[in-house]
Write a structure and sequence with these properties.
Length: about 90
Amino acid sequence: MAKYRKKPVVVEAIQLRWDTWNDVCDFVTGDYFGGGFNPNGDNNIIGLKIKTLEGTMEAVQNDYIIKGVNGEFYPCKPDIFEKTYDIVDE
C-alpha cells in the first residue's frame, strides 16, 4: 500500500463567538448560511447551522468555520482546528 502526504492548503476561517457573530454571518455566504440557533435556550451559547456538502451541520460557540478550497463551508471543533492549522502571516 502506498503512503500519501496531505498537500498544504491555506484556508480562511473564523471562530464562532458572541463578539464575532456579525463577522461570521458575513463570512458564511449565500446558500451555506442555515441560520442561527440557541442550543441550550439560555442565551449563553450561540449556534450556527451551515449547509455543507454532506448536509446541514451545526457549529456552536468557539467552533471554527472553515471555507474550503471550493468555496464550501464547514465547522471544525477548536481542538481539531488547532492541531491541524497554523496561522499564516500575510
